[in-house]
Amino acid sequence: MPSRIRSIDGTSRPAPGFPLELLPFFLVCAVLDASLGSILALLAEIRSQFGIDPFGIGLIGGSGFISAVVAQIGLAGLADRGRARSMMVIGLVLAALSFAVLAQAESLLEFVAGRVLLGLGHGAFLPAARRSVIIKAGPGAGAGAALGQLNAFQLTGFLIGPMLGSMIFGLAGLTMVFVAFLALIIVCIPLVARTNIPTASVASGSRVLRTLLRRPGMQAMICMAIGYYGSFGLYESIWAIFLSDLGASQPLIALNLTLFAVPMILVAPFGGRLAARHGGMRIAFASVALTVPFVASYGFWESAIWLTAIMMVQAVGDAIVMPASQLAVAEASGANIAAGQGLFGACGLAVAAGVAFAGGAAYSAYGPAVVFASCGVMMAVMLLGACWLGRESLGAPPSMNKSVD
């Protein structure tokens, strides 16, 4: 009799390999991350073309994080109640609207509005997509490998986005970059609308978030996210400006962001399998610890070439953190997978938003050395707190590797 596995939603199915039915989720996530990467790479050009100061650039990045927080807290739980398809379609529609706004933006307020819409789109789409991938792939190695593959596709999109955006910018200007990604996102809408989405729902309501927050495993992962996502706020608000101030050209900035994603694409599937084998929380915490020295040291380097090389090494750790942390959150969430993913992402993005808002002003006032070193210290302190909160889970075997005959 073939071995069967029991999924988080209680259903039993044959042990999966790599289901092709997951491919639409992977491709659409890649497009969304490509769109985000294109904006990140062009922030220095937006600053120079429209005369936006560093605080304004930070406001553009931070506003996207805040809107993503609102969407992940307010909408993610709906995917657990049988509305995953609706959440993903709504997310793509909002993302398309964001690029329609950005295509005609000429002022700081318009760029902020476009970034807010993109944050809402990402916040609505990603928790529902991750829930669908986890349910379809099954537990343990199936979920871990699928999350790793999902992250690899997202990172591939993030790799392509800056280069594609910079190429279109060089050929046709900034407006056409946004028009091109608007068209890509519109193409994705029917792809998601026709995909078979798991519709099993669970009892969910206003008490779900409070229930999740009472679980030590979730508390530990949120504590980790508070430290870890701070670095993303810096990347969003000042990384392109930092490289530009070091003398990097627009193509070099795009190449830097692209090369950062290369090791992550190659390592993320392995990271998901590693997390399934040894425990998501354990692997996530160890990988975050490996990235802290890199983040803390960035401000002391004065060569964009060396920064690119160092980022590629750090990317190996980040590639493992992403699927491992998502698996750990799924392990702590029980049946409320999307709500758990949304809560985890929202807490991290709230911190990223605060750092992005303050990052531009802090960069101007204190310089990159102080800003990045402070971020590294925050990551280390919150990681120690996460280890204490999750001490019981760290000593337990992986909880999603359950099989039944």
Assigned CATH architecture: Up-down Bundle
Percent of residues in helices comes to over 70%
Q: Which segments are poorly predicted (pLDDT under 50) over 5 or more consecutive residues?
A: 1-17, 400-405
Mean pLDDT: 81
Strand content: under 5%
Radius of gyration: 20 Å
Q: Tell me how many strands there are.
A: 3
Strands of the biggest beta sheet: in what spatial order? 2-1-3
Largest sheet: 3 strands, antiparallel
Number of domains: 1
Number of helices, where a helix is a run of at least 4 consecutive DSSP H or I residues: 15
Q: Gap between N and C termini, in Å?
A: 8 Å
Tell me, what's the shape?
globular
Structural class: mainly alpha
Spell out the CATH superfamily.
MFS general substrate transporter like domains
Order of helices and strands: EEHHHHHHHHHHHHHHHE
Q: How would you describe the overall organization of this protein?
A:
A 3-stranded antiparallel sheet has the order 2-1-3, with no helix packed on it. It starts with a strand and ends with a strand. Helix content is 81%, strand content 2%. The protein has 405 residues and is mainly α. The chain has helices at residues 23-41, 43-50, 54-103, 108-137, 141-172, 174-193, 208-213, 216-228, 230-245, 250-278, 280-297, 304-333, 337-366, 368-389, 391-394, and strands at 4-6, 12-14, 403-404. α8 (216-228) runs antiparallel to α14 (368-389).
Map the helices and strands.
Elements: E1 4-6, E2 12-14, H1 23-41, H2 43-50, H3 54-103, H4 108-137, H5 141-172, H6 174-193, H7 208-213, H8 216-228, H9 230-245, H10 250-278, H11 280-297, H12 304-333, H13 337-366, H14 368-389, H15 391-394, E3 403-404
Antiparallel strand pairs: 1-2, 1-3
